[in-house]
Amino acid sequence: xxxxxxxxxxxxxxxxxxxxxxxxxxxxxxxxxxxxxxxxxxxxxxxxxxxxxxxxxxxxxxxxxxxxxxxxxxxxxxxxxxxxxxxxxxxxxxxxxxxxxxxxxxxxxxxxxxxxxxxxxxxxx
Length: 125
Fold this sequence. Notes:
The chain is α/β, with parallel strands linked by helices. It has 2 domains: 3-69, CATH 2.40.240.20; 78-124, no CATH class. Helix content is 22%, strand content 38%. It contains 3 helices and 8 strands; from the N terminus they run E-E-E-H-E-E-E-E-H-E-H. The protein has helices at 21-29, 89-100, 118-124, and strands spanning 3-5, 11-12, 15-18, 37-41, 46-55, 60-69, 78-83, 102-108. A 6-stranded mixed β-sheet has the order 1-4-5-6-3-2, with helices on one face. Strands 7-8 form a two-stranded parallel sheet. Strand 5 (46-55) and strand 6 form a beta hairpin. The longest helix is centred in the last third of the chain and has 12 residues, at 89-100. It is elongated. The mean pLDDT is 86.
């Protein structure tokens, strides 16, 4: 089941409203439809199973179908060796890696990497 990290204010009672890049991910990349299920986490230690009720161009809505304690660490530990990327792309890689279950990130500096500020990269880790 696909997992998404969202701000707590997107969960209002039993209704979950998703905006922004998550809409693109659900609608175009994963091609999920009303009736499909996802997991959402809001960094509080809880995860909600959500049934999608509406998938539109700018918004995805769903109803919570259950709440449980987040499972924590998976049994399989995945380490991602990622070349350092420009701008916000490295942070984006960290975010998406976390969503799919990567537990350790190792930045790799190669001859093709362009690093303007090494300290900024270290802070993101």
